[in-house]
Amino acid sequence: MKMKKIIFSTALVLLLTSACEKWIDPSLNIDPNNPTDLAMAQLLAPVEANLAYIVGGELARWDCVWMQHIAGIQSQSAENDIYTITEADVTNAWSWNLYSPGMVNLRYILEKAVSKNSPHYGGVAKILMAYHLGVTTDHWGDIPYTDALKGVEGNFKPSYDTQEQIYNTIFTLLNEAISDLNASESVFSPDFEDLIYAGDLSKWEMTAYALKARYSLHLAKRKGNQAYTDALAAVSNSYTSNDDDFKFVFGSAYNNSNPIYQSEQERPGYYTASATYMDMLAATNDPRKEVYFDGTVGSKPGEPNADAAVIGAAYASSESPVYLMSYAELKFIEAEARYKLNAADPLAVVACNEGLKASLEREGVFGDGTWFNANKVTSGNISLEKIMTQKYLSSFLQIESWTDWRRTGYPVLQLATGAVINEIPRRLPYCDEERLYNGENMPTGITVTTRIWWDAN
User: Fold this and answer.
1) Which tens digits make up the pLDDT trace of 422-431?
2) SS (HEC) of 377-403
């Protein structure tokens, strides 16, 4: 009997052991919240949304306060109004938006696009990577890239590329993107998961050219007339109407909503109209004033006014779009480039007025054209200041205004009352995580008034 029990027990163990693979699902030990692989389609929409969220949110709240579109009147926003910003303030934008998940996920898409023979996806990802790099370098100057995004390989201390190197990378990415988008074969191509253009590759190609025009113009202090010539060459292949705008439209659900809307819900009363912007709009009875703001009073920089107008619903509702690049901006780029190459070029007038018209139409206030006809530029009064002023008034809550001001000095802005420094900031401080964990590579001796490479005197 004892022997039979031993034989039976041994047989049972063998039976259970041999059957394990048949009845135990090996995927039980795989955490579904930490997948080891993702499709490109699963990453594209989150990358787009994250980019729009940081560009239209935190960065816009700093840049556009300094550019006096809006005013910060409470707590931290009031400190930003007088140019107080610390290395801890920018950590979220640097570490947890632009680099991760932004550029980290884009690197993954780019690698997938190669392995899956899908250049159309690669082209879109290269445009988005170029945009991330442009935003990051225009705010901080020298940044990690060539040696970055390699945490999985154990590299947590990347060296920094110079801003000149980053700009070369931006143009390389955009040129490669144009080629990729025109590839005759692509196993996978973006479709409905592309929340910006729904897979329309022709619009992505126009965006690549639009960004080439923008970033060429940024180099005017470094390259002179060549920068304007390069910008015009790109303009000719880019947007033709407001329908082509590179914008992200947010959703009605709170966690999918516009970042300004979320800011207003969580910290009501922190931001109002700036008196600078309001007064410029009011001076000509500009019809966009009623779109940008709910009210007519502005808060002077550094002088908080709780009675000032709040941001209008067109820009501060849950589903308000964030403009990443627009037809209106493109026409002002063209106007500036043509004017700088030849102040008498009649096409500079045409382009400037087309930019103004596009802005008015985008905001739904062109009407019968009466205001436009009374305020458009002419060959007799066009100037760089007029071009840049019209671009400024057409770029509400767009961070490009800060770049334009640094490049051209327009519009002329007065220092905030009670300013903690003697000039408006020209860059952001590097974040505290870089100092703590990559300090040996991070540039030193930098303040918020130190000029970045393309902003040289």
Assistant:
1) 999 999 999 9
2) CCCCCCCHHHHHHHHHHCCCCCCHHHH
